[in-house]
Structures are given as structure tokens and as C-alpha cells.
Amino acid sequence: MQQSNLRSCGMKMLLSEIPNPLVVLVGPTAVGKTELSLSLAEKLNGEIISSDSRLFYRGMNIGTAKPSAEEMARVPHHLIDVTDPDESWSLAVFQQEAYKIIDDIHKRGKLPIMVGGTGQYVHAIVQGWEMPAQAPDDGLRAVLNRWAKEIGKEDLHRKLALVDPIAAEKIDYRNLRRTVRALEVIFRTGKRFSAQRRKGNPRYATLQVGLFRPREEIFQRVDERIEIMFETGFKEEVQSLLKAGFTADDPGMASIGYREVIKHLNGDMTLEEVKARMRQLTHIFVRRQANWFKREDENIYWFDVRKNGIVDEIVTTILNQNNWKR
């Protein structure tokens, strides 16, 4: 009880002395962010904002390892199940909505805790990115999508790499929507897409907490998670989405596994081939996440998630007011 009271006092001091605090919990997929974020939020009177782009989509629960209903009942969650798989949710839209939610959490005297592994979404908030002002060009976008169908999304991504290697490095070739958007902006403005997204003035004082465990252990957890997905109905989840009218071309279906399962349902891949491909793609994704969240980044306080008492250690760091940065 005494420790709880000390934390309560620490939280009140934090919220009163630090303008617009924001805790950001990052780390690769399968490292253990979900359970730890729940414990942090419960101890610090916080609410969780997801910055994982896979969790935006309704009806896509198993394949995205979305927090369960029981987990979301423990602590208020935001930006989960906010759109359908056939709708686009751009980085700019995410930023606008996240700003609204974080500001509302502050007004209610609680601590916002942003959790996720999608690097560009985290950086957009932490660094206050200013997005390209270029309005969508539906005609050009249609042309680029037709081009992608002709040459394939990998070749289209290679075209992007020729004109803007920095943007291409940050965009997964499987995310056709983002590749098309980058090329659209480049063709419309004559400027590199990567040069138009720049740091602005961050709105919040942030403390970034990074979780790590050995890479091979993460890969093992990924592989085990994929097996559990199929044991708990991933194939049936995809069938349900198709029955509802969604297709492999929808933005939400870019999440690892969904299009592979559709190929299996169409007779183009065996179930074991699907699992092998999911393991391969997720391992690649874990490596890509390391490019966004580097262990040598002095703005991230890294913790070994396997360590005993890790939650209390992180809480102490959060309540140390000298560590907050804009």
C-alpha cells in the first residue's frame, strides 16, 4: 500500500511538472509489449494508444495478435478496431487521431502510453513529423495501381528505390498502398517523398522505453505464435473476412499471413508453405523494426524484458523526471 501511495504521488507530480508527458513503449513484435504495457498502465493510471498499424482493422484479430477482449478490459485502449480492412488509414490520419486522444487523456489527468512496433507511426508522434501537403490524385493513383498489377508490387517498389532509396528502405514492398502514395507524391511534386516528411515541433515530452530479448528467442516466440494462430482459428478468420466481401487487394490484408492464407484457400499454397512463409516474413519484419528502434539510440531506455522486477524498474525510470525529452 505504501509503495502504491508513493507511485500515486509520483504520478501527480509528473503530470503537474512535466508538460504533456507521453510514455512510448517500443520493441520488436513478439518481444512481450502487450502484457508489460498493461502492467505499466495499471500501476501508473495510464491508458494505451496503439501505434501498431495492423491493429487498426476490424475483424482481423488472430492474425495480428491483437490484445484480447479481456486484456483490453483491464485498461482503456485506443486506435484498435477503428476501420475496415478495405479502407485506408494513412499516417496523417493516424497522427491527427492520436493527437486528439493523447490530449484528451491529459485533460482527464491520466498518463498516455503509446505502444507499438510500427516505426513510422511512433516517430510521427515523437518527432512531430510534418506530412506532405500533397492532396491525393485519384487518377495518378489508379495508373500506379494498374502498373503494379502489370509488373508486380516488388518491381514497383524497385522503381521507388531508384528515385527515392530512403523512402524505399522505410516502406515494406508488400505495402502497395504506401509505395503508390510515395510515387504519387514524387510524380506530382518532382521532389523525393522522403524529403517532404520532416521533423517538426514535438507536441509532447516523451520517455521512450524499449524492450529487448535475444533475437533467436524472439524468432522462436514468433514461430510458436504462428502455430497458436492456426490452432485458435486463423484460417477460419480469413474465411470469415472473405465471406464478408473483403479481398486480398484490400489494405488491411497486407498484414503478414492474410494473403498467404487466401492463396492456401485458393489451392496455391499448402498450409505448411503458408506457415513457412509467415515465419520468413515475420523474421524479416523483426529485423526491419531494429532499423527504426536502435539499441544505440540514446533517446530510448532499453530493458531486458526477461529480467525479474522489470515493471517496477521501468516505473522508477518513468517517475524520474530528469529523463523526459522533446
Q: What would your notes on this structure say?
A:
- The protein has 326 residues and is of the alpha/beta class.
- The protein has 15 helices and six strands.
- It has helices spanning 2-17, 33-44, 69-74, 91-107, 119-126, 138-151, 153-163, 165-170, 176-189, 193-196, 215-231, 234-243, 258-265, 271-292, 310-318; strands at residues 21-26, 46-50, 77-78, 111-116, 205-212, 300-304.
- The protein has a six-stranded parallel sheet, sandwiched between helices.
SSE blueprint:
Layout: H1 2-17, E1 21-26, H2 33-44, E2 46-50, H3 69-74, E3 77-78, H4 91-107, E4 111-116, H5 119-126, H6 138-151, H7 153-163, H8 165-170, H9 176-189, H10 193-196, E5 205-212, H11 215-231, H12 234-243, H13 258-265, H14 271-292, E6 300-304, H15 310-318
Parallel strand pairs: 1-4, 1-5, 2-3, 2-4, 5-6
Helix pairs in contact: 4-5, 6-7, 6-9, 7-9, 11-14, 13-14
State the gist of this model.
Helices cover 53% and strands 10% of the residues. It is of the alpha/beta class and 326 residues long.
Q: Which short descriptors sum up this protein?
A:
single chain, globular, 10% strand, alpha/beta, 6-stranded parallel sheet
Largest sheet: 6 strands, parallel
Q: How many beta-strand runs? A: 6
Helix content: 40-55%
| Beginning-to-end CA distance, first to last residue | 33 Å
